[in-house]
UniProtKB/TrEMBL annotation:
CDD domains: TIM
Record organism: Sphingomonas pseudosanguinis
Catalytic activity annotation: D-glyceraldehyde 3-phosphate = dihydroxyacetone phosphate; L-erythrulose 1-phosphate = D-erythrulose 4-phosphate
Broad class of enzyme this protein falls into: isomerase
Catalytic activity, EC: 5.3.1.1
Protein name as it appears in the record: Triosephosphate isomerase
Family per record: Belongs to the triosephosphate isomerase family.
List of residues binding substrate: 10-12, 169, 208, 229-230
Length: 248
């Protein structure tokens, strides 16, 4: 089944109003590549300004709370980011798992909240270096998917991202064989959970994606796009990744 490639950026805890100027060239590149979907997750404080500045570009949040409202000081709900102009949110990112102790169960609840509020979801999974060295990468990813993917997930609102933690921000990536293996296992696990709908779900690769390696990584079977951290912060680094996706 043909799935449109998705190139999504994640600014993490970076950026400022001034940095939003980078999005002008990203939006232009996205418009020049209509065969590719392009999205950018930015800090909560920049969502409204980003969505207003580049209305054609899909702007998203990096996280949402699992509840719609209530006494949760400092948290932000899916409805709030939607109202601010977000079209999607990332959930279950490994930095939230590591820094905030989030679990796959939390990611499941956040994905459900996002969907309930009309947001597309990019749900992250991925093993640590110790888990990979112990030969447990496949089992870890399978277990994360099993615990975090909602029963009603389908490609119209749901995307999975495989991000091995040891490849994030390190300049190291798995081999194409390792990526193909995990993505095939992820697809099979999705099929067990949601049946034929699994064919329509995009599975992104994330971890040290750059303009130099994007074409190689995006050509791997079952890699339907990229989730990009550091190289999403400037148009100069992000646009070549969009162009690589468009060239496939
Ligand atoms: P880097 O592209 O900086 O390795 O980050 C990947 C990531 O965590 C995207 O969510």
């Amino acid at each position: 089944m043909a799935r449109r490639k998705l190139v999504a950026g994640n600014w993490k805890m970076n950026g400022s109003r001034a940095a939003l100027a980078e999005l002008d060239a990203v939006a232009a590149a996205a418009n020049a590549a209509p065969q590719v979907d392009v999205a950018m997750a930015v800090p909560f404080t920049l969502i409204a300004a980003a969505a207003e500045r580049v209305p054609d570009l899909s702007i998203g949040a990096e996280d949402v709370h699992e509840r719609d409202s209530g006494a949760h000081t400092g948290c932000v709900s899916a409805g709030m980011v939607k109202e601010a102009g977000a079209r999607f949110t990332i959930v279950g990112h490994s930095e939230r798992r590591a820094d905030q102790g989030e679990t796959s169960q939390d990611a499941w609840a956040k994905a459900a909240a996002a969907h309930r509020n009309g947001l597309h979801v990019i749900l992250c999974c991925g093993e640590t270096e110790a888990e990979r060295n112990a030969g447990r990468a496949e089992r870890v990813v399978q277990a994360q998917i099993e615990k975090s993917v909602p029963d009603n997930a389908d490609g119209s609102w749901f995307t999975l991202a495989y991000e091995p933690r040891w490849a994030i921000g390190t300049g190291r990536t798995p081999t194409v064989e390792e990526i193909a293996s995990i993505h095939a296992i992820a697809r099979a696990k999705l099929r067990m959970l949601i049946g034929d709908a699994a064919d329509g779900v995009r599975i992104l690769y994330g971890g040290s994606v750059t303009g130099d390696n994007a074409a190689t990584l995006l050509a791997v079977e079952n890699v339907d796009g990229a989730l990009v951290g550091g190289a999403s912060l400037t148009a100069a680094k992000f646009v070549p990744i969009i162009e690589a996706a468009a060239g496939l």
